[in-house]
Amino acid sequence: xxxxxxxLAIIGLLFFVxxxxxxxxxxxxxxxTIAAPPAVVFEQVNDFHKWDHWSPWAKLDPACQNTFDGAPxxxxxxxxxxxxxxxxxxxxxxxxxxxxxxxxxxxxxxxPFEATNTTEFTFQPEGNGTLITWKMFGKNxxxxxxxxxxxxxxxxxxxxxxxxxxxxKTIAETAAK
Length: 177
Description:
Elements: H1 2-20, E1 25-34, H2 38-46, E2 65-70, E3 77-82, E4 89-98, E5 102-111, E6 115-126, E7 129-139, H3 142-150, H4 153-176
Antiparallel strand pairs: 1-7, 2-3, 3-4, 4-5, 5-6, 6-7
């Protein structure tokens, strides 16, 4: 019995050391170029009421309960969702909005896990279009470090960002015509 307990203790210690060595912070970044002026692209992101049209998560739960508060768009606008297991529950608030340039969002996940991150969208003129960059960053707590051992969060979340940017591209390019 003692050798089994000692082996389990060693495995637990090794697991703890492995987690302690994982990065304390994470960043997920994806970009695309959209054939529309920065103001047109910015308008789609700066208003949470428009997110259902391009957000990759909106399609995962059409019955998701969404609520809006604060300003109608821009700084002070708030959005909360409560959905199925695929989308969970959480809240976002735009903390900074610089027209056709930057949107910064405080993102709070409540379910299936609790986390607070920052999301940024930047809009840069590029030729006759816009280079949009979607970035999310935050701290890796113990649970996210453990989860990251088994799931590559950059790939998982990055795929969703890519889908969202592709939908946003279609909408903004149509609006620009």
